[in-house]
Specification:
- The structure is a single chain.
- With 76 residues, this protein is mainly alpha-helical.
- The chain contains 4 helices and no strands.
Length: 76
C-alpha cells in the first residue's frame, strides 16, 4: 500500500472538517440527510450510520480522537 503523508496541521484541519460533518449528520436534519444519502447511494447497505462510523474512523486514523466514538465505550 502506498503511504500518504500529511502535515500535522493538515491532518488536524481534515479531522476538524470530518468532525463537523459527523456532528451535522447527528443533528435535527438527520432524517432528511439519511433520505438524501439513501437516494444518492441507491442501496440500503450503506446508510447514515455507516457513514457516521466511517467518519469517526477517519478522524481516529488521523490521530485526532480516542477510540470512544469507534467502540461506543469510554476510553480507559
Amino acid at each position: 500500500m502506498t503511504e500518504i503523508h500529511l502535515e500535522p496541521i493538515d491532518a488536524v484541519e481534515l479531522a476538524e472538517m470530518l468532525t463537523m460533518l459527523a456532528n451535522w449528520i447527528t443533528g435535527h436534519q438527520r432524517p432528511t440527510l439519511a433520505a438524501s444519502l439513501a437516494a444518492f447511494v441507491g442501496h440500503h447497505a450503506y446508510g447514515i450510520d455507516e457513514l457516521q462510523n466511517d467518519i469517526h474512523r477517519l478522524v481516529f486514523l488521523l490521530g485526532q480522537s480516542d477510540h470512544q466514538k469507534l467502540s461506543g465505550e469510554p476510553a480507559p
